[in-house]
Amino acid sequence: MADEPYRRFASLAASAAFVTLAVILMWLSAGGWDLSGSKGTAMKSELCNHTRHLPDGRDLFQMVCAFGGTERAFSGIHDHKEFNGSGVYRCACCGAPLFPLDAKFNSGTGWPSFTAPVTDAMGYRKDILQYGSTEVHCSTCGAHLGHVFDDGPPPTGLRYCINSACLWYDEFASAIVAASSPWILNAYLVLLLLTGCCASCCVFSKHAVVVAQPYLQKPKADRVDVEATPVPRANAFADA
């Protein structure tokens, strides 16, 4: 029992090391780990065209694109329009091309959905408050757009779920689709990662205790044998 505190310390140290390593690997592979979730997007307002007409309203645009909010499902104008043609969806802030019209599909979710963006149009960051989902933002101005999931149709298998308030439709432009697949971390991969970390910590902590045992043992005090002195028993038949 004397070694129990050291075992706990080794287990906690191993857990911290593996969690730190996991966060670093995800940060390097995804271009950033957003510890605050999708709230407070770093949108460069100086790049915005503040005179452009926004069909969904400027207040909603600010709430979604600048502060990382989400519009109500089935409320955006671009959810149920523009399914035929050759135009391009642009960023409502800076006007950079984001999605060609032929990448749009009806997902039934209530938000405009696309299979692939224009080349280099997207920036990605992990949203820890959404069970490890991947947030997408405009790579030009940083405006929050929505999220990307791995449940889309072929050929990419991706679903870019975008807020309508972040888009404006340019029917006279065209762009090339880049069917690139970002590194997506969904809830199942998060669960698998945590399970692996816990199992590794259990194995690592046992080895750590064995290796550190000679250094963690406390010196024992010298044993002193004390001879017991017999205690005389009272004479039960002593004279009153």
Automatic annotation (TrEMBL):
InterPro entries: Met_Sox_Rdtase_MsrB, Met_Sox_Rdtase_MsrB_dom, Mss4-like_sf. Binds 1 zinc ion per subunit. It comes from the Eukaryota. GO terms for cellular component: cytoplasm. Its EC number is 1.8.4.12. The chain crosses the membrane at residues 12-33. Its cofactor is Zn(2+). One of its GO terms (molecular function) is metal ion binding. Residues 46-172 form the MsrB domain. Keywords: Membrane, Metal-binding, Oxidoreductase, Transmembrane, Transmembrane helix, Zinc. NCBIfam families: peptide-methionine (R)-S-oxide reductase MsrB. Belongs to the MsrB Met sulfoxide reductase family. This is Peptide-methionine (R)-S-oxide reductase. It comes from Effrenium voratum.
